## 1
Amino acid sequence: MQVTVIGAGNMGRGIGHRLVAGGHEVTVVDRDPEQAGRLAEELREAVQGGATVEAAGPDAELSGEVVILAVYYPGSLELARELGDRLAGKVVVDITNPLNQTFDALATAPGTSAAEELAASVPAGTRVVKAFNTTFAGTLVEGQVAGQPLDALIAGDDEEAKETVAQLVRDGGLRAINVGPLERARQLEGLGFLGITLQQPLGLNFQSAWKLIS
Ligand SMILES: NC(=O)c1ccc[n+]([C@@H]2O[C@H](COP(=O)([O-])OP(=O)(O)OC[C@H]3O[C@@H](n4cnc5c(N)ncnc54)[C@H](OP(=O)(O)O)[C@@H]3O)[C@@H](O)[C@H]2O)c1
């Protein structure tokens, strides 16, 4: 699958590693082309199963069906508005944990989520999926914690779009869990926030993962 990752930071790197492990064609975009180039070079060293990696500038055409916005909220909303019609028809993945400026609460209003706000900012026909916000960047590079594959919790209103993201997740060696409609992003963002708050008190150093077991 062709996937564009916008944002060549920590999460662009982590998700990028899972995508190339899964054999996908990845285009890395950043507003700093050198940063995109450096990540593309790192990912090329890790390709498996016919994966390819390219770097592109912010004005490049968005290749592929899936666009992952690996940037902070609310910049993600501004970015979506800037991209405008270039997102039309794509599966757009929101990975944000929308924390406030003091990192002690969510910045979104009660009764909504960053993902739902994003869905209201994209052109009609664009399918927004929430994923990867509950997995830390460093753990995505390996795809596992304590020998167990990461769970990627996925919310969205379009079943086909969610399955597309789930396929990327599974190809990268992770477990995909469909948690329901996009409205569930409210809970996923709460869970992501909770995970962040636990790092310092428990000395986890962002090397922990949420795991659903039965
Ligand atoms: N880090 C984690 O473990 C983690 C886990 C789950 C979810 N998340 C979420 O993932 C998102 C990204 O986090 P991160 O840690 O990867 O941040 P990061 O390391 O700062 O990476 C973001 C990258 O995106 C670039 N960028 C920002 N706006 C852009 C735009 N309009 N066009 C192109 N590139 C742009 C940034 O460039 P500049 O440096 O110039 O701003 C930076 O290179 C956040 O929403 C965060 O809440 C993070």
## 2
Amino acid sequence: MSKILVTGATGSVGRHVVSSLAEAGLEVRALVRDPGRAALPEGVEVARGDLSSPSTLEPALRDVESVYLMWPRLPVQPGVVDAIARHARRVVYLSTDVPDLEDGEQPTIFHQEIERQIRKSGLRWTFLRPIDFATNTLGWADQVRQGVVRWPYGQASRSLIHERDIAAVAVHVLTSAGHDRAGYVLTGPESLTHAEQVRIIGEAIGREVRWEDLPPETAREQLTAAWGDAEFVAARLKAWAGFVDSPERVTDTVERLLGRPARTFRSWAEEHADDFR
Ligand SMILES: NC(=O)c1ccc[n+]([C@@H]2O[C@H](COP(=O)([O-])OP(=O)(O)OC[C@H]3O[C@@H](n4cnc5c(N)ncnc54)[C@H](OP(=O)(O)O)[C@@H]3O)[C@@H](O)[C@H]2O)c1
């Protein structure tokens, strides 16, 4: 097997993709912006590059067969997929739970635009479409430390996935055949309400953490001030409201691909307990 380039190699998923590939003795190269801060496992080849500047990727892509591609908060750069297609044969893209675009349909989110570029590129591709990362609950860490989480829609049920399961699927797809043109919707093994997630985090850190339902309009003001994107906040609030009556779906994709159940949110919370202490 030839070399695999991992982008977002210091990110929550990419870091595990790099370490799993390296542990398996595979040839991996990690793309980072600042090698001095990357803190990747010893012996991993590191290449400097910036996804906002496609020409910086050329040296990193040399002799690469496959690419694990993630896209950070950046305007989409068409040159990136083109550069990958000039060097590699296959890309595994960390997308999100989006439908395939119909012919002529316009993307509504950057992930659809990147998926569209990849489909047109001639690369062999697989799209990983996780719905909701367990790491999102780290946003509650300050409130957990105060002993009470005030957030909207305590009864909204979400199917959070452990970042290591996304990485494990990425590694499986990068190292085995039969995944071309697949879009894998990835979730955790169960759907848990926001309030249940907070209770489980409290159990993992060994102290009671209360849930307090924040009225949606108060949440809208606070989250817009914190996140600076009213449209995104509105979309989140609408989605969470919907998950009260219709829990976020749970897929068996992780288990089907890996031959073992997806990790639970409890195991995630226990692993991340120190982040909440
Ligand atoms: N959170 C969710 O629930 C969810 C659900 C579905 C999909 N997703 C998608 O998952 C992706 C995030 O993945 P993640 O959590 O593994 O990453 P992450 O933890 O957010 O880390 C971001 C990564 O992007 C890198 N990066 C930032 N700007 C860069 C640039 N200009 N050039 C090259 N690298 C750059 C960072 O590297 P540096 O070390 O250089 O900063 C870091 O490795 C996003 O596309 C998001 O939409 C998230």
## 3
Amino acid sequence: MLGAIIGDIVGSRFEFNNHRRKDFDLFAEGCFATDDSIMTLAVAKAIIEARKIHPSDGRHGEAEFLDTLRNLTVKYMQEIGRRYPNCGFGGMFYNWVFSDAPQPYHSFGNGAAMRVSPAGFAAHSKQNALDIARAVTEVTHDHAEGIKGAQATAVAIYLARRGALKEEIRDHITNEYYPLDFTIDQIRGAYRFNETCQETVPQAIECFLEATSFEDAIRTAVSLGGDSDTIAAITGAIAEAYYGVPDEIGNKALSYLDGGLRAIYDEWSALYAEGRERFKVLTKYIERITESDSYGKWIFDQKNDGTSEHPTQWPHVSYDRLVRAFATELYQFHESHPEYSLDRYSEILKKNGLEWGARPMREANAESLGEPCILALMMGAVRAERFCDGALLGFFEDGSILKWLKRLKDLDIRPN
Ligand SMILES: [Mg+2]
């Protein structure tokens, strides 16, 4: 949820003054928490209160929970919404907030997706994410495209939270929701302000899929133009689930919330301790690596006979998608975290009494090493492949990568 709030606040000053580039100050004069943040917090409040009435055991009582949730979503969106009449509501929604008999109004506006992120964070299964998304959406946006926009957003968050790879999230969205047959660079020039789910949600998801870090996701979303606070809110929520939120950005955004809104956020984050892991983008591989029994295959050239006309190709490893994704994300982590100086991995290893070589690296006692050295070990393993075919496969197969990632996960625990 914090990712949505960040995206909303950062995007707020660009909604009617688009900035189609990635270079800008995240927080500056003119930034404020708009309806996207406020309605997201109202949805979060409804989920918190509905769960107090119907605690989840993951199996029973979900229908009753969803009924209560629907009623409480109306209650809190109205109650909280009425305190902020000028936060940016559209006309129809404004009337709904102040109505004595609020009814759904068949909307497919992107408001459905901008406020739905708590559904993805609170869900205990994919189906549960879809059910919660529908319940909090259909009280206003009961058009099929409104429900779809909310569910696509919630499911992307749920999958990202549970450690899905980007390619898997892309496949799921493409198969079930929207064809993502464009890149942000391709559409940026012609993209215009549009308040429908159909012209906001797929674009926001693509911004996340193309990003290399949480911050880059927010910048990419703003650079697209259009309804900037809402696009960045949707992108930001998914990016939070996938990358976690850097402390500095998270704390700055929270400083824009008044006491009442902040209290909802605090209650929520105590229940759904979300998005505060620094190394999640890497440690999410722990489960996948543990489950996988193959990381790649050696390819031996059997077509050529070694003559000068048909020189044999050197044996090399064709890596599985999991390993390729890991290596790409380690490089992206390096680029977005220059403070670790991972290009100097071999120096870092030396400082810790280690050599850059298969044996000393494998035998290093991970339990005694700190973050910089663990990250340097992983970078050293990925870089070794450039110089020695199959080197990285060795580090996967002998359990080194898994051991280092587990150590990194232990080091990630910190006070909130
Ligand atoms: Mg807004």
